[in-house]
Design brief:
With 387 residues, the chain is an alpha/beta fold. The protein has 3 domains: 190 residues, Nucleotidyltransferase, domain 5; 94 residues, HRDC domain (DNA polymerase, domain 1), CATH 1.10.150.80; 78 residues, Orthogonal Bundle (DNA polymerase, domain 1), CATH 1.10.150. 43% of the residues lie in helices and 12% in strands. The longest helix is centred in the middle third of the chain and has 27 residues.
Length: 387
């Protein structure tokens, strides 16, 4: 068990403390942040634990130089271990422009260790260490200073136990020959594009039922502008302009300030500060040739797979995931099962690699009538049928 965590408040303390981790094989990392009022998450605390040392680094201290920490994030000799680390990684991408490397996520690994989808850290702690963590500071305001001893202890627990959990998970995966099963999932976490939203495609995330091509064109331009403006002002995009307001603007296409009185939820109405820039964006959109309009991908009517076959594949997937103690979504989504029902060569993960070995192969056998499902003593069983 680690000693009392050290709260780092100066560059000298940080450099000295991190030097003790230089030879560590891995370091457990977590962050505390706030993002309710900003576009970018505001880093409030960084917790690290390795080699018997636990640190809580305060990045809000004036003039602290975090370079040594950022260098650690790119040290190829030290594995950075997170639990449900996507948001933590996003913070470091924003601060450094790079994804920490190499990385490991115990929540992803847990999906092939029998814990199901998105298992919580507290459950892993209970399982691997037998301890219960204190959740009382979960909803604390991490921007407030000074930090209390209780806050620091709560934050440190998120990495102290991770140091114990990670080696045990690795041993289990090695013992069950599943080390390779998590590699592709971990590789996807290292893609820089995952953490850099593309402003020009943000309109595709909006929930609208479609419309005329000219309306979609205006919506795309407005969503692009809003994303860049929210980044520049560092405010949440919906605080700048709500989604439904953006869709209303694209549909009504106001051409004068007076018409903004009819736009529900537009801040400030016809005298709002955003009237002028929005009118400018709409004027720009009007200049775009129709051939250059963004394409709205309507849901094409595709051949429907027999529902009975989809239901059978779902039962088979449930059976396989229970037998191998793997989270279902790691093998196939509902959409994947529909594609598989229609096409034996569908481009889905379940038809390649380890997923094929434990599910895809038997799923194809089921489709060809060479596999039967039956229930005995409340449990699903498989019966292979000779051709």
């Amino acid at each position: 068990m680690n000693s009392k965590p050290q709260l780092i408040k100066t560059t000298e303390e940080l450099n000295s403390a991190l030097s003790k981790l230089a030879d560590a094989e891995f370091v457990a990392i977590d962050t505390e942040f706030m993002r309710e009022n900003t576009y970018y998450p505001k880093l409030c605390l960084v917790q690290l634990s390795a080699a018997g040392t636990t640190l809580c680094v305060d990045p809000l201290v004036p003039d602290i130089d975090m370079s040594a920490l950022y260098n650690l994030m790119q040290n190829p000799s030290i594995i950075k271990v997170f639990h449900a680390g996507r948001q933590d990684l996003e913070i470091f991408v924003h601060l450094t422009g790079q994804v920490p490397f190499p990385i490991y996520d115990t929540q992803i690994a847990a999906m092939v260790c029998g814990f199901g989808d998105q298992v919580g850290y507290d459950r892993l702690v209970q399982h691997y260490t037998g301890r219960t963590i204190d959740k009382s500071s979960r909803f604390t305001n991490w921007m407030e200073r000074p930090l209390t001893d209780r806050q620091v202890k709560y934050a440190a627990d998120d990495v102290i136990y991770l140091v114990e959990i990670y080696p045990q998970m690795l041993a289990h995966l090695k013992e069950t020959n599943r080390t390779d099963w998590v590699e592709s999932e971990l590789a996807s976490l290292s893609a820089l594009s995952l953490y850099l939203p593309a402003p020009e495609t943000m309109w595709k995330r909006l929930k609208f039922r479609g419309g005329k091509p000219s309306m979609v064109n205006r919506l795309a331009k407005l969503a692009h502008w809003r994303e860049l403006e929210a980044q520049k002002r560092d405010v949440p995009r919906n605080r700048l302009l709500r989604d439904d307001t953006l869709i209303d603007l694209a549909g009504s296409n106001p051409k004068t300030a007076a018409e903004f009185r009819k736009i529900r939820g537009f801040p400030g109405g016809e005298t709002g500060k955003l009237v002028k820039p929005v009118l400018h964006i709409l004027q720009q959109a009007a200049q775009i040739p129709e051939l250059d309009y963004p394409q709205f991908e309507r849901q094409e009517k595709r051949e429907k797979a027999p529902q009975a076959l989809i239901d059978l594949l779902k039962v088979l997937l449930k059976h396989v995931t229970e037998e191998f103690e793997v989270a279902p979504r790691l093998i196939a989504s509902s959409d994947d099962l529909e594609k598989l029902a229609l096409n034996d060569k569908a481009d889905i993960p379940a038809l390649s690699g380890w997923r094929y070995e434990i599910f895809g192969q038997v799923a194809l056998e089921l489709k060809k009538g060479r596999l039967a499902l039956f229930v005995t003593n409340g449990k699903t069983k498989l019966l292979h049928i000779s051709p």
